[in-house]
Write a structure and sequence with these properties.
This protein has 250 residues and is mainly α. The chain is built from twelve helices and two strands. Helices cover 57% and strands 2% of the residues. The protein is globular, with a radius of gyration of 18 Å. Belongs to the PTPA-type PPIase family.
């Protein structure tokens, strides 16, 4: 299933190459994204069917909804943490129907989610997508949140790399291929100009936290407060039979 999911994401990547940006007067939100998205809209169920076994094929339409929601909005040509949450929901559904298992955890994050990140970055760059609901310098990042949580947990108990090191350009350049958190920092520095402390103030503050476990705990709290509990983000979230809206019994 992990290999099939990576293949699915490779297909989305290939479609970007096949759908170059169009010439248009406005700098942001290239309309070619809508062409790319229309293809996904049409093919999503077939793509999901390649990942799930035959006897679960009835789940494909519902799971496909989360895949379509995870790549950005085709009307506004934007992308943000709500779309990222939809990809987490997509993975969660695959766990609930038994396609992904507990012992796939590391691969779910570092193979599948990492490949998803690469494709999203390519979408953001190619079609110059607007950040959805960005809080500017007060937000953690214009587009993503989850890789900072998983990336910081990956660095807990690292013998040499401390939170203060991620604002050091040399450290990032030397280690970004091995650590999800540093890869995120590299992408920000590629996309933004000016001093890091100015364009990414929240991350700059986080670099002063003494340990990665503290960073990780803080980011989980922040994710709940800034993403999952924010109406502008969560109003677009889809509920169905796999992820019902019924309150949980404690």
């Amino acid at each position: 299933p992990i290999e099939k999911l990576v293949a699915l994401l490779n297909t989305l990547d290939r479609w970007i190459d096949e759908t170059p940006p169009v010439d248009q007067p406005s700098r942001f939100g290239n309309k070619a994204f809508r062409t790319w998205y229309a293809k996904l809209d049409q093919e999503a169920e077939n793509l999901v069917a390649t990942v799930i076994p035959k006897h679960l094929v009835d789940a494909a339409p519902e799971v496909a909804v989360y895949l379509k929601e995870s790549v950005g909005n085709s009307t506004r040509i934007d992308y943000g943490t709500g779309h990222e949450a939809a990809f987490a929901a997509f993975l969660c559904c695959l766990c609930k129907i038994g396609v992904l298992r507990v012992d796939d955890q590391m691969a779910i994050v570092f193979k599948v989610f990492n490949r998803y990140l690469e494709v999203m970055r390519k979408l953001q760059k190619t079609y110059r997508m607007e950040p959805a609901g960005s809080q500017g310098v007060w937000g953690l990042d214009d587009f993503q949140f989850l890789p900072f949580i998983w990336g910081s947990s990956q660095l807990i108990d690292h013998p040499n790399l401390e939170p203060r090191h991620f604002v050091d350009e040399k450290v990032v350049n030397e280690n970004h291929k091995d650590f999800m958190f540093l890869e995120c920092i590299l992408f920000i520095t590629e996309m933004k100009t000016g001093p890091f402390a100015e364009h990414s103030n929240q991350l700059w503050n986080i670099s002063a936290v003494p340990s990665w476990s503290k960073v990780n705990q803080g980011l989980i709290r922040m994710y709940k407060a800034e993403c999952l509990e924010k109406f502008p983000v969560i109003q677009h979230f889809k509920f169905g039979s796999l992820l019902p809206i019924q309150p949980v019994t404690s």
